[in-house]
From TrEMBL:
Protein name: Group III truncated hemoglobin
Taxonomic superkingdom: Bacteria
Organism of provenance: Epilithonimonas vandammei
Keyword field contains Iron: yes
Keywords: Heme, Iron, Metal-binding, Transport
Classification via InterPro entries: Globin-like_sf, Globin/Proto, Hemoglobin_trunc
GO-annotated molecular function: heme binding; metal ion binding; oxygen binding
Length: 127
C-alpha cells in the first residue's frame, strides 16, 4: 500500500470513508437525517479540508466547528459518536494506505474528535 501523497489519494480516502460512515448504525443518521448532507457539495469541502491538513495545500476555507453546533442542538453529538467516527476513519485509512501521511490522518482525526466532542458537550451544558 502507498501513503497519501496526492489530491486523488485524499479523494479516495474521503469517498471510501463516506461510503461507510453514512451507512453506520450509530452515526449514519447524523449525515443522512440530521445534516441531510448533499454529497455532491459536501465531499469537495472534505477533500479540501483533508488536502490542507495532509498535503499542506491551503485549499480549505471554512470553520468546521461552527457548522457542527446547529447539528448538536438538534441531536446531541456525544463522545460515543465521535469515537465511532474515529473508528470508521482509522479503519478506512488502514484499509487503503500506509505511511507518514496515513498516520497523520489518524492522529489529526483523533485530535479533531477530542476537540469537537469537548466543545459539543460544553455547548450542551451551557444551555
Amino acid at each position: 500500500m502507498n501513503d497519501i501523497t496526492t489530491r486523488q489519494d485524499v479523494e479516495l480516502l474521503v469517498n471510501r470513508f463516506y461510503d461507510q460512515v453514512i451507512k453506520d448504525d450509530l452515526i449514519g443518521f447524523f449525515f443522512t437525517d440530521i445534516a441531510k448532507i448533499d454529497l455532491s457539495k459536501h465531499l469537495p469541502k472534505m477533500y479540501n479540508f483533508w488536502e490542507s491538513i495532509l498535503l499542506g495545500n491551503p485549499v480549505y476555507e471554512g470553520n468546521p466547528m461552527r457548522v457542527h453546533f446547529p447539528l448538536n442542538e438538534v441531536t446531541a453529538m456525544e463522545e460515543k459518536h465521535f469515537n465511532r467516527w474515529l473508528q470508521v476513519w482509522e479503519k478506512t485509512v488502514h484499509d487503503n494506505f500506509e505511511g507518514e501521511n496515513a498516520e497523520t490522518a489518524i492522529t489529526r482525526a483523533l485530535n479533531i474528535a477530542r476537540i469537537m466532542s469537548y466543545k459539543m458537550t460544553n455547548a450542551r451544558s451551557s444551555e
